[in-house]
Amino acid sequence: MHKHTPLQLPGWRAVARHALPNVLEGKIIPLIVFLGLLKLVGTTSALVGALAWSVVALARRHRKQRQTSGILVLTTVGLAARTVAALLTGSLVVYFIQPTVATALIAAAFLGSVLVGRPLVERLFVDLCPLDAETRDHPQLRRFYNEASLWWAFTSTVNFAVTVWLLLNHSPTTFLVVKSFLGPITTVVTLSVAYWWLRSSLARSGTAVVLAPAVLPRR
Predict the structure, then answer these.
(1) pTM score, two decimals?
(2) What per-residue string of b and e applies to 27-43 under the rule 16 or more CB within 10 Å gives b?
């Protein structure tokens, strides 16, 4: 069996130091903005405020020529879908369809990222794990970025289809109960299969994984 160059990954402390700023910027701060404005001025303003934060954060990264955060991209897509839906009528279907639209847009984002040669999983991976340029471009990782992005697009599409079917064929109570479990289950399955996929592909190719000191990329 042909053995590839060993894949050097940083330890968990380096991963935590690298991931925390991205998680804060892409998830925690938008949530704080949303909750604060929700209490002060209402739902629509809270959504617009959180979306504005995310858009400004993306623009700031672009202006400074910093790497775009995958977490921030997904948050912005989700907030955009919810904000548009909130600005429409007060229909119950429209209210419940907000997260469903976000799921469909996320599926499209993952698929589109592969088609343009910039797989979104790569951005998420680099958001959470500091990699030097050589490790990031390791052939097994490059293959994984594309395959995992397609897998995430598929599971998001299934989630979207099941959610629409529930919404159109069952009562709001049934919809809410099933949906509360569907999202977390889909996420766990997606991440678990992606992790297994990566480990299996590395094993099949004979690629060794070693822990190495982190070299933080230019962000």
Answers:
(1) 0.60
(2) eebbeebbeebbeeeee
